[in-house]
Write a sequence for this structure.
């Protein structure tokens, strides 16, 4: 039994609900370079990327352990309740590489006093960001 929380060895997995596992898996693998770790019966896929776990699952209704919860992909891509940021050393170079691989960005990279960043979506509308922190002067 764990005596503290968090305890040594605990890891965080992000769960993204997707419409089609194959399409989502291909995006995260081929565009973002994620490693496919395991797949379960065509309804879920575990990926390892950027030092974390990502679990892609198809939607589903309530279960005994979540009796009032329904999993569903985003219904309105412009209304965001979860986003992921990937810290990159060079936002413009990452933007060019990801766009070449098929990522569709909302805008070209935008620069502020503290960072350069650009946003894009996965095939289901989940929002992702690449961000380059600027060196403080």
């Amino acid at each position: 039994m764990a005596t503290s929380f968090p305890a040594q060895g605990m890891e965080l997995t992000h769960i993204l609900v997707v419409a089609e596992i194959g399409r989502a898996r291909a995006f995260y693998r081929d565009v973002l370079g994620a490693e496919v770790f395991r797949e379960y019966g065509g309804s879920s896929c575990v990926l390892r990327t950027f030092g974390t776990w990502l679990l892609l699952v198809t939607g589903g209704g309530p279960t005994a352990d979540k009796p009032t919860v329904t999993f569903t992909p985003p219904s309105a891509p412009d209304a965001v309740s979860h986003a992921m940021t990937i810290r990159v050393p060079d936002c413009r170079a990452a933007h060019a590489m990801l766009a070449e691989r098929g990522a569709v960005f909302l805008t070209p990279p935008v620069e502020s006093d503290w960072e350069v960043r650009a946003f894009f979506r996965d095939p289901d509308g989940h929002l992702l960001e690449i961000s380059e922190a600027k060196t403080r002067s």
